[in-house]
Design a protein that fits this description.
The protein is of the alpha/beta class. The chain has helices at 32-42, 54-57, 63-72, 86-94, 104-108, 111-120, 153-163, 184-193, 207-215, 226-229, 235-244, and strands at residues 5-13, 16-21, 24-30, 47-51, 77-80, 99-102, 125-134, 137-142, 147-152, 167-172, 198-201, 221-224. Strands 1-4-5-6-7-10-11-12 form an eight-stranded parallel beta barrel, surrounded by six helices. Strand 7 (125-134) and strand 8 form a beta hairpin. Helix 1 (32-42) packs parallel to helix 3. The two termini are 15 Å apart.
């Protein structure tokens, strides 16, 4: 059985790691490079860095920070935010990123996924989907959750897979930062409908939450932020507990 992955997420704004609730009321959480190195030392399987205001502000992703990250850590990391072309993706690869994540630009131009996948391979591209449950339908949002689109989670995820995405990173906007658990029924349905890995994001508040989404939720990886950033649990302790519960993780 493949090991389940634990992935700290570092939302970056103006060169600092931040965290909020439902993408709002942001608090400073530290230097992104220092935090990344700390998590790598604790046993994180991968890292995800998201420049959370890049698409909203029309900027390019924080190239200099990416270079610093690649020089400081030795585990795979994904970078997202403001990537709107294959050239953007290539630039980040050149700076040391192992994968790139596309969200807003892919919703607006789905062929972007195909272009990046055909040039660099599916393993290089993660399609991030931020969605909110509205009238019983998971609606895809863009621009850091600010804009609600007419796309629906399951059909968009399948289209992204068919266009060449290697992974789906689904964040529940309704659960983000709440530390009240992931929407596991939704994750289970999503994972069952796809043939590529799904990373669960939005709602991690305890070991129980993460264990549930990796088992009942069928997710291939659990992404979390607040519980790591503010010292509520270490990755080392989390993995030991997951392993004790019979969940296969790399320790």
């Amino acid at each position: 059985m493949l090991s389940k992955r634990i992935i700290p997420c570092l939302d970056v704004k103006d060169g600092r790691t931040v965290k909020g609730i439902h993408f709002e009321n942001l608090r400073d959480a530290g230097d992104p490079v220092e935090l990344g190195a700390k998590y790598a030392a604790e046993g994180a399987d991968e890292l995800v860095y998201l420049d959370i205001s890049a698409s909203h502000e029309g900027r390019k992703t924080f190239t200099g920070v990416v270079r610093r990250i690649s020089e400081a850590i030795d585990i795979p990391f994904t970078v997202g935010g403001g990537i709107s072309s294959e050239d953007d993706a290539a630039r980040l690869l050149d700076e040391g990123a192992d994968k790139i994540s596309v969200n807003t630009a892919a919703v607006e131009n789905p062929s972007l996924i195909s272009e990046i996948a055909s040039r660099h391979g599916s393993q290089f591209i993660v399609c991030a989907i931020d969605a909110r449950l509205i009238d019983g339908v998971w609606r895809v949002t863009t621009h850091g959750g600010r804009n609600i689109t007419d796309k629906e989670l399951f059909s968009w995820a399948l289209e992204a897979q068919n266009r060449g995405a290697g992974e789906i990173l689904f964040t529940s906007m309704d659960h983000d930062g709440s530390k009240q658990g992931y929407p596991c029924e939704t994750f289970a349905a999503l994972c069952s409908s796809l043939s590529i890995p799904v990373i669960a994001s939005g709602g991690a508040g305890s070991v129980d939450d993460i264990a549930e989404v990796l088992t009942a939720g069928k997710a291939d990886a659990a992404l979390a932020a607040s519980i790591f950033h503010y010292g509520e649990i270490t990755i080392t302790a989390l993995k030991k507990e997951l392993s004790a519960r019979g969940i296969t993780v790399r320790v």
